[in-house]
Amino acid sequence: MAYISEQQGKCQCNKDPVNSILFQMLNSGLNTETTRSLQSNHSLICSLDKGCPCESNRKVLLKSPEVTCKKASEVLLKTVAFIRNVPSFYQLPQDDQILLVQNCWAPLFVLGLAQERVDFELQEHFVPSLLKKILLNQCENVGDVALKSDGGVPITEVQRIQRFLYKFWSLDICTKEYAYLKGMLLFNSDISGMKYSHYVHRLQLEAQYTLMEFTSMMHSQNSIRFMWMLEAIDSVKQIDPKFITKLFFKPISGEINLEELLLETLFVK
């Protein structure tokens, strides 16, 4: 789905910075002991359990934003339509409705991507380093580099979305199961500050129980299918909404407060 060439994404951590020409020019006065210490520290950083630091710094963009962003907009409209067609949602106080939308629109949107089988390819987002800019005299000030480096989404966040999509596609979720799962996500009783959290919790349990019954009936030979879906739903709740906006909507719509737009759309008179 999101292929990035091995050469482009290749980690640079194994390259020894202490032996680089630039490093030697800038630090010609370092003694042998200090040099060895730097080499040791560099190796330690790249061998930590957290993984290579290059990976967390990598950012990606949509390869075909015109196509993908259009599909994403259609999924968002269907997400709004789903919420509008749930009578129990509008029986809640408006303050509770707003809290639910603010906390649930992103996972509902990603679930919609899975249901509509929205596939997308990525490309690496490259930003010249500040040092390179300075050496080549390619920018007027530090702010130029900082502004341009704001593009792209961390690849770790995109991979979180991809893992969820792949999991659901492999389970071959049907339309009814998607409806019950959306109900579980919409009525999230873990959100603090709601006036009728007990009612929301009851609605969430009803959706979960109905899903369990349906799954047991349709997939009686696969007893762990239901648990797999619950685990996937828990993971999608961890996706940061700001990265959803940045990846799927900013390339076409620019800077936009998607949450505010959703609330205006849902509560328009």
TrEMBL record:
It holds the Pfam family Hormone_recep. It is found in: Cytoplasm; Nucleus. Keywords: Cytoplasm, Nucleus, Receptor, Transcription, Transcription regulation. GO terms for biological process: negative regulation of transcription by RNA polymerase II. Gene3D superfamilies: Retinoid X Receptor. GO terms for cellular component: cytoplasm; nucleus. It comes from the Eukaryota. This is NR LBD domain-containing protein.
